[in-house]
Each structure stands twice: as C-alpha cells, then as structure tokens.
Fold this protein.
Amino acid sequence: METYATALLYATPFFLGLVLFEIGYGHFVKNQKHNVMDTVSSLSSGLTNVVKDSLGLGIILVSYPFLLEHLALTEIKATWLVWVIAFVVLDFAGYWNHRLSHHINFFWNQHVIHHSSEEFNLACALRQPVSNLLGYFALLLIPAALLGVPHEVIAVLAPIHLFAQFWYHTQHIGKMGWLEYVIVTPSQHRVHHAINAEYIDKNLGQILCIWDRMFGTFQEELDEVPPQYGVLKPAQTWNPIVINFQHLWRLIQDAWRTNNYWDKFRIWFMPTGWRPSDVKEKYPVQIIEDVYNFRKYKPDASNALKGYSIFQLIVTTAMMLFMFYNYSDIGFDGLLLFGAFVFCGVYGFTTLMDRAKYAVWIEVLRGLAGLLVIFMTNDWFGLHAYWSTGNYFVAFYFVITIFGGIYFTYFEKSYVASKLVS
Ligand SMILES: [Zn+2]
Ligand SMILES: [Zn+2]
C-alpha cells in the first residue's frame, strides 16, 4: 500500500494539473464545460476514492495470486508478449466488470458515482467509488490466471490501465478517425455517459473499443443526438459519499418494504433500476423522462460559498498529499484517523454546498475534533518534523471550518433552502 500511496502522491498533482488545463482551455476558447460546484464535488469524490484505496479497506473475496496458484496451466515469462497478453485480458475483464456494473442492481451502486455528474469533463473522470467494498474483480481475471500471467505484471498494469481511462472524459476533442475503431475515444465515452435513449448503457469498453463492437454494445456519437449527461435518477447532492450509497440505500429500503419474499431476495440481482411492484406503486421514485428538459442540480450558491468550497478542497487535497508523503510514519491507526478526517471534511463541506442545515454540525464537530488532536499531540500527524509551525496553520484551518460552517448556515444573506431533497 505504501507504493500505491507514493504513486498517488505524484499522480494527484498530474491529474489536477490536467483538470486545471481543461478549465483554462475552456475559458480561453469560450466554451467552458466546468461549473465550480460540480467540479469541486467531482474532485472531492476523487479524494475519498484514493484515500479509501490507499488504506486497502474492503474485503477481498478472491485474490489474483490465489487464482494463479490454483489455476495456472502454463507459466509465461515476463517478456514483452506477456505484457501484451496481460493488457488484453485485463481490458477484457474490465469490459465485463463495467457491463456487470451497469446491468445488475447490486453492482450499479459502486459505479453510479462515476455517472452522477451532470457535466462531462476531466474532473468527472475522478468520480470513483468508495462503495466498492467487495473485491471480486480477480474472478474476471481467470483467463489471465489460466495463462499464468505473473501477479507482478497485473499489479503494474492495473493502475496504468485505470489512469489511461482519464483523458477521454472531455468535450473538447472530436472524432479521431481510424482510432475510433481501435480504442475508446472522447466521442465514444460521451455516448457512454449520456442518458439519451439512443446512448444509455452503450460503449462499456475501457481502453479497447473492440469488445463493444464484438458484443453488440457499440454506439457511435450522432450529430443529431447531442449527449445529455447524468443518471436517470438524479443524485441531487454534491456529497460524493452520499452518492456512493444512495442506490444501495434505495435497494435496502425496497427489500425491507416489499411484502414479497422472493422479491426481497432477487432485487439485488435484477437489472439496474428494477423494483418490486408493490413498493414501486407505494413509493414512486422520480426518473428523468425528457432528457433534453430536466433541471440540473443547482442549489443556490453565492460567490463566497464557491470560493469557500474551493478553499476547502485545496486544503483537503494538501492534507491528503501530506498523508501520502508521511504514509509509513503515521502508522495504520493514525492513517485510519487521518482518513476519517478527510472523509468527514469532504462530507462536511459538500453538505454545506448542498445548503443542508445539518452541515453546520459536521463542520463544528470536525473542527473541534481537529483542534483536539492538535492540542493533545502538539502536532498534526508528524507535520511538526517537516514544518515547525505547521500545526498552527492546521489549527487555524479548523477554526475557519467552524466559523465557515456557522456563517454559511446562519448568516449568509443569499441563503435559500434547497428544496431538492432526494
Ligand atoms: Zn459506466
Ligand atoms: Zn467515464
């Protein structure tokens, strides 16, 4: 996990730099595809994902080394060929995993976050799950295990394969000629994120688009059908942690409420969006019908709140980078506590962005908790060793958090309660 934390230490500024570049480019060509609150929400979703992954939380049901040990028919040496084979089987597994996520109720929960943005830009690529708590992906790597692809090759390729899915989340690149027949391009992936009837659940490939063409899920972007982005049941919140568990919560409620025992069991494995008929009637859920005329989520936001959200995002990102930098010295218990601060931080300031009144409680309590840690340890997770007055700045940040929470909940003039409750 420490190597992963180190990789993230370098990858995070790289991805953030590219997001900033896209924002700058959009501004320059007067075709901005970002809006402040959505982008802050997307980036904070990315923070929660990398913190969760770096801590290795979750239950691994099956691991690749285990499968390799029991299934390998041959052993291929780590020549260039093995990298090519590993890449193709990994991409093949990725296609099916993605297809499973789109089509099965239970699996959709861990993928909905990626589709929850109603914009489409590089930041939306960083909306990645924290609700992927069951590690079953290795099962899809059985072909790799049979061929005896070494674990190290998969371990190196997997993050590269994931990072290589970042660039095509943009509206600034058009169709790419012959490449459209080989790899997933921005045009194809715009289709994937669209909720238009023509486009939904299409283009599930990750790097190669050949799987979509082979298995009938390919759809070209059509000039006469401009993609409309989001999910059919809008998230209605900027809080990425809530979005991660919204669908699961709906499933739990439906399974609990239905009177049909067979439905209680099968709801988890039914196609995404399927609901037992009795609860569907009794507790209807709003679904977007006219994709060209739905109201995007946009609770009232003053410039002050926008600026404050950006400030919170920057400090949280800096804190997380420090956590990765000092990963081995903090120790696992410390990392869990640090991770909790990052999660509560994202939860708190995105709830404030939602204009939910209870945000003030989270902000005041996490502010006090932060001050307490600094007071008790006279340090901030080892920051003192690098920056002797650093903990005063962190303490100051927590004081701002307390007052920010109070100010934006009770005193800001433009406050209008959001009536959009999911
Ligand atoms: Zn998807
Ligand atoms: Zn995507």
In short: Confidence is low (pLDDT under 50) at residues 417-422. The two ends are 36 Å apart (CA to CA). The chain is about 60% helix and 0% strand.
